[in-house]
Amino acid sequence: MTILAGHTKGIPKKYIRTSSSITTMTLTEKQKAEVRETLGRYCAAYQRKDLKALLALLSPDISGYGAGPDEIFRNRKEYAPLLKRDLIQATSIFLEFTDLNIFGDGRIAWVMSGCNCTFVAEGKDKQTMRVRMTMGLRNTGSRWLIEQLHISTPNTGQAPGQSFSGE
Question: Can you list the domains of the chain with their CATH numbers?
Fold first, then answer.
């Protein structure tokens, strides 16, 4: 375990690292473009309602949360029926990332974005669900795979400037 300088009182020097020894985590522009391309393939596969193409973008060990209360998955096998349900329950789906931020280091990337999911469910009018999304990706050497995904909607009971609902 290494402790950053500034919080060192009573800690042996071997566990202390100065800020000059901390490296900045960055991806190259080429890597960021590859991640954006992966996100584009994710959106396109959703729009085509192509389950096989969606599953090909996912690590076998993907884990995460969808926006629904039952959307919890710990691997691709658990996530597949949730994706299939999305594709079956909508006659059309269009995803658009907003305020896209891509960060990372080497073979690991993380994404933070808004996402507008515009869809038409059977017998219903077109709707847009605005969600927040974080995603972790890993470069296998030949492509980026989605390892972690978290989709959420803001707590509508929590007023701006408040930390908890109902304050």
Answer: 23-152 (3.10.450.50)
